[in-house]
Amino acid sequence: FVSKYVVAGLKGVRSAGVPSSFAEVKEEIEPQVINRKKAEIIKGKVAGKTDLASIAGSFATQVDTATSVSFASAFIQKAGSSEPVVVAKAFKMDLNQVSEPIVGNTGVFIVKPTNKPPVAAGGDIAQVRQSSQATSRTMARARLIQSLRASADIEDNRSKFF
């Protein structure tokens, strides 16, 4: 027999449908809006440039090569997250063609496909869906714990007792 408890806090209740005021959704959408504006600024700065080294140099970063990128997984090493839009556009492009700036989940990407492995015969869609859902669940759990830690108001008094 295992006893487990769930402590939930309710910040507010919103009715279904369109929010009645901007204040209700501001906290949720503000990071997305900021990232979109940053992406627009970056896209403006690299417009018309096709040399990856000079683009990377203007942002004090390096050109990196992603290997083992699969259309099914949409995961790019060192990007930190799933980037389905970036992977889809990269697979759609011709070899050695430099893309326009692509706004992803974790940044703005400019890709230049150098190798395209032959596409395997149709994959198992159910398996791809299950894998994607498992990844989303894991990310949701991790982000929930992080947000709880960030919002918790806890004093550590262990040193007084031990």
What's the gist of this structure?
It is built from 5 helices and 2 strands.
CA gyration radius, whole angstroms: 22 Å
Q: By helix and strand content, what is the structural category? A: mainly alpha
In percent terms, what proportion of residues is strand?
A: under 5%
- Approximate helicity band: 40-55%
> Sheet bearing the most strands, described?
2 strands, antiparallel
Protein described:
The chain is mostly helical. 44% of the residues lie in helices and 2% in strands. The radius of gyration is 22 Å and the shape is extended. The two termini are 30 Å apart.
List its salient traits:
2% strand; mainly alpha; extended; two-stranded antiparallel sheet; 162 residues; 5 helices
Walk me through the topology.
Elements: H1 22-46, H2 52-58, H3 84-92, E1 102-103, E2 108-109, H4 125-151, H5 158-161
